Amino acid sequence: MNVNKVILVGRVTRDPEIRTTPGGQSVATLSIATNNFWTDKSGTKQEKTEFHNIVLWGRLAEIAGQYLTKGQECFIEGRLQTREYTAKDGTTRRTTEIIGENMQLGSRAQGASQGGNSAPHSTSAPSDRFAKGTPSVSKPAPIEEEIPTINLDDERDEIKIEDVPF
């Protein structure tokens, strides 16, 4: 049995970059930072930050482009994928990315504005939301899509072994 599963909860390091393939499919690239905290043998608290490159496709990419901003908490579930490419200097390079298959939005960074978007936890069809020059009376109300969210603000303290119930 083979398993290739990645689960990340962290903060977005830059606004997602959205592109469209020649075939018309949306693709978003973004980076997420995750922190690891521990206490070393001398009792000093230590911290290490890892940066993860994420690729989202289709509707997930569109949602990320609409709602994710730098500093926002985000849950990504997906798989690892390594690809090769030719760099500008002609050398062949490899990069490992996380192909996101599921995403949940978290709270925005403190001080970040919400911009012109509607509520951060729901979306509607882009053609309904951004149609211009059509009277709103003639359009039916868009169906709201439920987007699950997370909140890391409650998870600031270090987990202690005595708190684990098993």
By CATH, the superfamily comes out as Nucleic acid-binding proteins
Structural class: mainly beta
Helix content: under 10%
* Low-confidence residue ranges: 115-141
Spatial ordering of strands, largest sheet: 1-3-4-6-5
Q: Helix count, per DSSP?
A: 2
Based on the coordinates given, report the CATH architecture: Beta Barrel
Distance between the termini: 27 Å
Give the SSE string: EEEEHEEEHE
In the CATH scheme, the class would be Mainly Beta
CATH topology descriptor = OB fold (Dihydrolipoamide Acetyltransferase, E2P)
Mean pLDDT value: 78
Radius of gyration: 19 Å
Count of domains: 1
Q: In one word, what is the shape?
A: globular
Strand content: 35-45%
Q: What is the number of beta strands?
A: 8
Structure description:
The chain is 8% helix and 42% strand. It has helices spanning 58-67, 126-129, and strands at residues 6-12, 17-20, 26-39, 45-57, 73-86, 92-105, 122-123, 145-146. The strands form two sheets. A five-stranded mixed β-barrel has the order 1-3-4-6-5. Strands 7-8 form a two-stranded antiparallel ribbon. Residues 115-141 have low confidence and may be disordered.
